[in-house]
Amino acid sequence: MIVRTRADLDGTDRVTVAGTWSSHRLLLARDGQSFSFHDTTLHAGTETQMWYRNHVEAVYCVGGTGVLEDLDEGVTYPLADGTMYCLDGNERHIVRAHTDLRMICVFDPPVTGQETHDVDGAYPLLTDA
After folding, report:
1. Given this model, what pLDDT does residue 28 score?
2. CB 75 within 8 A of CB 85
3. In degrees, to the nearest 5, what angle opens at C-alpha 86 toward C-alphas 70 and 91?
4. Which residues lie across from 37 on neighbouring strands?
């Protein structure tokens, strides 16, 4: 059994900070599961373009407001507490955070925690746990 709190991760390599977001990686590939599990905050007033061409991501908003734009279809969706979206078609997308957006994210395959977004907004497929 794996039991962790978000606070347990502070000051460890399981916290990733980027220009528009920060993420506490509660489960990573090295934990031996078939997915990774993250508590991520997209910072108020920011815009993050992403494209997970190597992963499926499901996201559940547990706080804040913003907008999700599907760049493939040209459709936008409001984001608020209780909204879930799943990028099951590896859609290119933008998240615009009106306020801090707290998102619970699941990635398949699991990420290692060492990934950084490339120029396309994608994570490389790393397998080293």
Report:
1. 96
2. no
3. 35
4. 27, 106
Q: Give every CB contact of residue 39 below 8 A, 6+ residues apart in sequence.
A: 6, 23, 24, 26, 102, 103, 104, 105
Phi and psi at 20, nearest 5°, equal -115, 0
- Non-local (6+) Cβ contacts of 90 within 8 A are 51, 52, 53, 55, 56
Given 3-state DSSP classes, what are the helix, strand and coil percentages for the chain, each rounded to the nearest 5?
Answer: 5, 45, 50
Find the Cα–Cα–Cα–Cα dihedral 62, 64, 67, 70, rounded to 10°: -20
Which CATH number is correct for 15-108, 3.40.50.1580, 3.40.50.2300, 2.60.120.10, 3.30.465.10? Answer: 2.60.120.10
Confidence band, pLDDT 50/70/90 cuts, at residue 119:
confident
pLDDT at 31 over 80: yes
pTM of the model: 0.89
Question: For the chain, what are the domain ranges?
Answer: 15-108
